[in-house]
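HUMAN: Forgive my ignorance: could you write out one protein's sequence and backbone structure tokens?

ASSISTANT:
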Amino acid sequence: MSIKKAIIELFEEKKELSVKEITELLNVSKQMVHLVVKTLTTENFLEKLGRTPKTVYRLLDKTDEQYQEQIGADISSSDRKFLDNHFLMVTETGDMMSGLSAFSLWCTRRNLPVDKTVLEFIKTKKKYELYYDGSSLINGVEKLKNTKGYDRIWLDQLYYLDFYAIERFGKTPLGTLLHFAKQGQNKHLMSLLLKEIEDRIHEFLKSAKIDAVGFVPPTIRREVQLMKFLQNQLKIPLPILDIKKISGIIPVPQKSLSKLDERIRNADKTFAVTNQGTFEHVLLIDDAVGSGATLNQIAKKIKTKKIAPKITGLAIVGSFKGFDVITDV
């Protein structure tokens, strides 16, 4: 019996094994086992889980492969390319998938026909693209102005790189990357997110003539902070404002507050700007914007201290809620 056949029979019996287990059970070299499991993974017989040194291999669940049968041959190359650029998902087991294969799996798990649903997704996504301006940004300042509850809008402009989610189909690719990078404190996903946004942010800095930048600090303590990672890796060659989060004994995230007046009070009482210099145009960068209360109240503090007369907010993603007034994270 060949080593490959022996390993296949072993997986059919055990379902899930590490390289060490295979080596000990079959009394073969580790190098040979690595070679065979790599081949079986490429052939979609096995799936690789985890990272070295905690990698295990699992017999691929054939019921989970049914989505491959739904990939329609009639889907055009342009529609496939659209999905490559606009559809990203993370499965319940932590696998990141994109494009038609991901969309087909998404449809299978909801008992939806792929061909028809692809067209519906493209139509829905293009509806949201109408909110982009000529600079490929979503202007959120009108949404802010139309939100009842603000005594004053301190931000001069507010932009999003993308919406956090769209109707029916859930999180956008940027929304997906941000959510899992932040919640999982995953530097790999943070790097992928950075790759998607860094050129756009640097282009905006130049076009808007920004001369200082502020990064909104996080509320919840984490070992790996997304905003600190972005601040370090973006390498913006401008002065960075010193914005502090001064929470009470119990940190209260904005997204946990349902009322706008609570969010405004939270932002007003728990953020401080301690800079002494003056600038012309400050850019405030946040990961996600719901109501806009955090950015607006930080802008208030900057203008009150006469640090800068013009302030723009820029979020990686923003909530769509409120745009239907002129049409959470």
